[in-house]
Amino acid sequence: MISFENISFSVAGRTLVKNSTVNIPSGHKVGLVGKNGTGKTSLFRLIYGEITLDQGNLKLNKNARVGGVSQEVPGSSVTLLDTVLAADRERTDLLQKAEEETDPFKISEIQTRLADIDAWSGEARASTILNGLGFDTHKQKLACSEFSGGWRMRVALAAVLFSKPDLLLLDEPSNYLDLEGTIWLQAYISKYPSTIILISHDRALLNNSVNSILHLENKELHLYSGNYESFAKTRAARLAHKQAEAKKQNLRRQHLQAYVDRFRYKADKAKQAQSRLKMLAKMEPISISSEATLKKFDFPQPEELSPPIVNIQNASVGYGDQTVLSDINLRIDQD
Q: How many domains does the chain have?
């Protein structure tokens, strides 16, 4: 579906990815993860064609349609349902041509294509997506201008899902969804028929919707099979092995250096000392990523507090002279 062949690219003079090769097959659901600022969103911009490669090749399937959510839909007088339906441009264009065309042969071709893309179920499909993202039937008939920016971001997400691009790019979609919407999106992504690359810090979303993890670290891209939990375990094992190898190398380096320091100026040992110096020079340091050096914090179990933690008796609350609640009796214990 999409291949990165020995790619390097930079933004504002800062290299974000260097000499990386990754192939993502068609139909894969991929979670793109990495520390903030490493270049995940910039990788999306590269796929969109907004920035260019410094070297290498980016290959997409021929005629592949790429879609994503860049901004909220405008606050127009168009209804939510019509806004989502309009996102499928081919369907919209064909329906328009079907009304205007007079040539029987061309009309037949148009109707055949409309059937091929399941155009007649479009309204029901769009309504189902909107409903999953929190818009009931009544809200779907309201104008976009009736909703805030956060809700219009949901409409934009619904629109791109309805258009079914061959490569769907989603950047933190759960940021503007509630729990119900996120759970619905998990199920939708897992059944999506084409390729998805998803940027998210939501581990539940990554665990329940993707089958591969693309990790961006130290300016390199690495593709792991499985969900986020599987990736975390695999990576932890690799890091542990790498740390062990680095420790062994460091001990070896210290041993060689000690020999050199002791014998380099002794005539009968100078040759061996020089040989060990060359070995030290050829020894490539094993680098450990900055993420691997992060410390794990363990918080001790707190002592149990004496009950009650909260105790309210015969209380009243309000503002000004207006009492809102009265005769409040509340007790909260630790259990």
A: 3
* Any domain includes 274: yes
Distances from the Cα of 10 to the Cα of 47, 60, 200, angstroms = 14, 20, 22
Identify whether the C-beta of residue 227 lies closer than 8 Å to the C-beta of residue 206: yes
- What span, in angstroms and rounded, lies between the C-alpha atoms of 319 and 204? 41
Taking alpha carbons only, the member of 271, 283, 270, 335 closest to residue 309 is 335
Distance between terminal CA atoms of the chain?
53
pLDDT grade, residue 290 (50/70/90)? low
Look at residues 200, 154, 159, 178 and name the one whose alpha carbon lies nearest to residue 30: 200
Cβ–Cβ under 8 Å, residues 229 and 66: no
Q: HSE of 50 in the Cβ direction (CA atoms, 13 Å)?
A: 9
- In the block, tokens 């009265």 appear at 326
CA distances, 202 to each of 178, 238, 309 (Å): 12, 23, 32
Q: Domain for residue 120, yes or no? A: yes
Q: 56-84, pLDDT tens digit by residue? A: 999 998 889 999 997 788 888 999 999 99
The answer to whether the beta carbons of residues 132 and 183 sit under 8 Å apart is: no
Residue 168 region, left (φ>0) first, then alpha (ψ -120 to 50), else beta?
A: beta
Say whether 66 sits in a helix, a strand or coil. strand
Provide the pLDDT for residue 291.
55
3-state secondary structure of 290: coil
Would you say residue 143 lies in a domain? yes
Beta bridge partners of 226: none
